[in-house]
């Protein structure tokens, strides 16, 4: 029997589209609904309880759209809300930290893994827990690199500022001896071309959780007999909580013209939106 209900995916902005892309590539017959919470972007510098409340409200909305599984395509929201969300909702919920940690443990040869992320993710120490859960013998260096989020969101992932920040990061993790770098923010895979230029194919493996998260979703659908089963490719639906034009512009810059137009879903009232980014 096939289950044609959609899969819900969310992030604070365009970063989670890196996960959406991998889901779409691996599971082309699944209906995907992506929600970007631009009303509260960025999540990284916010208090954990704030991000948790946003995430729970979004998951509630996605569950209301009859989703069969929800992917928290944001490391900061995964760190802040995954456990609370699993306690509250019956729908299977998948975060991006455990898949990224697993990929890192499989990639490292010297047992030294560096993780770059937002401040919220670093402060939560969830990568340390997840990596050491997978292999307690692995050492972890966590670095917050919050400026990269705005740079990516602005479509400047290949620009000189990204280049300079990443060069500094690579010097620091090289000094510490990491042979593996986890891109612990769903915006960061868009920096891969800049990173590859800096690494010159060197000794550091770069891992992100987009592909491993998609693979995990595929396994969960199979084990729980939730797969849509169809062969036909279904286009994703895009929702934003604010600034649909800004979202469409960043998404087009980053992913070309391949994405549909986003629809505005005002999940928060005007008062709650007073702290929104322009
Ligand atoms: N995409 C988010 C993450 O993976 C970060 C963006 C933000 O700060 O809102 O952590």
User: How big is the Rg?
Assistant: 18 Å
Low-pLDDT windows of residues: 273-278
- By secondary-structure content and strand pairing, the structural class works out as alpha/beta
CATH structural class of the largest domain: Alpha Beta
Helix content: 40-55%
Arrangement of strands in the largest sheet: 4-3-1-2-9-10
CATH fold node name of the largest domain = Rossmann fold
- The number of distinct β-strands equals 10
GO biological process, one term: regulation of cell shape
Pathway: Cell wall biogenesis; peptidoglycan biosynthesis
Keywords: Cell shape, Cell wall biogenesis/degradation, Isomerase, Peptidoglycan synthesis
EC number: 5.1.1.3
Properties at a glance:
10 strands, Rossmann fold, single chain, 6-stranded parallel beta sheet, globular, alpha/beta, 278 residues
């Amino acid at each position: 029997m096939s289950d044609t209900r959609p899969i819900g995916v969310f992030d604070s902005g365009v970063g989670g589209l890196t996960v959406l892309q991998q889901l779409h590539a691996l599971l082309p017959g699944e209906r995907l609904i992506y929600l970007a919470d631009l009303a509260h972007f960025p999540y990284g510098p916010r208090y954990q309880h704030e991000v948790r409340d946003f995430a729970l409200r979004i998951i509630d909305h996605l569950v209301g759209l009859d989703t069969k599984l929800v992917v928290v395509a944001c490391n900061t929201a995964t760190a802040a809300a995954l456990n609370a969300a699993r306690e509250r909702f019956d729908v299977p919920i998948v975060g991006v930290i455990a898949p990224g940690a697993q990929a890192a443990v499989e990639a490292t040869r010297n047992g030294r893994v560096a993780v770059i992320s937002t401040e919220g993710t670093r402060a939560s120490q969830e990568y340390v827990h997840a990596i050491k859960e997978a292999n307690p013998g692995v050492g972890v260096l966590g670095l917050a690199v919050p400026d990269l989020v705005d740079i990516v969101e602005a479509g400047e992932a290949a620009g000189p500022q990204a280049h300079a920040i990443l060069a500094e990061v690579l010097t620091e993790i090289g000094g510490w001896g990491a042979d593996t770098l986890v891109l612990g923010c769903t915006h960061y895979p868009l920096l891969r071309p800049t990173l590859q230029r800096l690494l010159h194919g060197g000794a550091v493996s770069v891992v992100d959780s987009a592909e491993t998260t998609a693979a995990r979703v595929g396994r969960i659908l199979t084990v729980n007999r939730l797969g849509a089963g169809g062969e036909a490719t279904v286009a994703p639906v895009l929702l934003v909580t604010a600034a649909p034009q800004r979202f469409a512009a960043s998404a087009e810059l980053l992913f070309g013209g391949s994405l549909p137009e986003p629809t505005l879903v005002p999940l928060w009232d005007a008062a709650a939106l007073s702290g929104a980014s322009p």
